[in-house]
Amino acid sequence: MLEDKNRISILDTTLRDGELAPGVQMTLVQKIKLAQFLEAAGVDIIEVGYPGQFDRDLEAIRQVSWHLKQAVVCGLAGAKEAEIIKVVKALEPAKNARIHLYTNVRLTPKQNRAQVLETIATSIAIARQYCNDIQWSAFDATRSQRSFLHRAIETAIAGGATTINIPDSLGLATPAEFSHLIRTITTEVKNIDRAVLSVHCHDDRGMAVENSIAGIDVGVRQIECSVRGLGARKGNADLERVAIAILNRWGDRIAVNPAAIETAANFVDGILFKTRQST
């Protein structure tokens, strides 16, 4: 992904963050089918689950990995080695695999900054033993101390992270605030050119899509989103809306086909309808 500076990748997290939406839970068969729809629509990376927190996600990642041919299959882990190893095992069948790590960067006064940076470096070093495609997320970045955020990003990249994700974890930022944060990162983090810059915006204030698109103007090259905007609390940036906004403004910088996304969206609508009927 680093070769093409203009390419915008799409990471879909419906199978992971989407299941955090109230009342949403998919069967294994449904997850495999949805992943196949997303791959057919041109989605670059499909994040399937968090096996360190949900045991069922290990098998979901493994089975989706068996069925996908081109898309990168991604699994989430915290900094603990046991969580990372669960993702490694789950991704064994994947033709293209990514390990996604995260660290909370909004620290309390009592937390030791040096220890947190060491944790970031150590977790990435462990993951790099098994996979070359490592994404690191700065959880709660929008509410973090900027100087520490920059050091954390530098540490992650120096350790081998190839994608750096900046989430608006609680969906609090405006497009102007979020783009300013991203612009500051691109100018203050000295090794940022060695990684793809990504964003993951929540929709608590109804601005997840706008914040995601605003990031592209200031260096973002990966957008995280979900089908129908499903996700924790009020959800994530909507995949279809993001794709259409990018295509309307930047043309062929993404591989996603909005018409094919609609097939995936209709499939998800069917799952949601059946879930509501049964409750």
From TrEMBL:
Pfam families: HMGL-like. GO terms for molecular function: 2-isopropylmalate synthase activity. PROSITE patterns: PYR_CT. GO terms for biological process: L-leucine biosynthetic process. Residues 8-262 form the Pyruvate carboxyltransferase domain. The keyword Manganese applies. InterPro entries: 2-IPM_HCS-like (IPR050073), Aldolase_TIM (IPR013785), PYR_CT (IPR000891). PANTHER family: 2-ISOPROPYLMALATE SYNTHASE 1, CHLOROPLASTIC-RELATED, HOMOCITRATE SYNTHASE-RELATED. Keywords: Manganese. This is 2-isopropylmalate synthase. The lineage of its organism: Bacteria, Bacillati, Cyanobacteriota, Cyanophyceae, Oscillatoriophycideae.
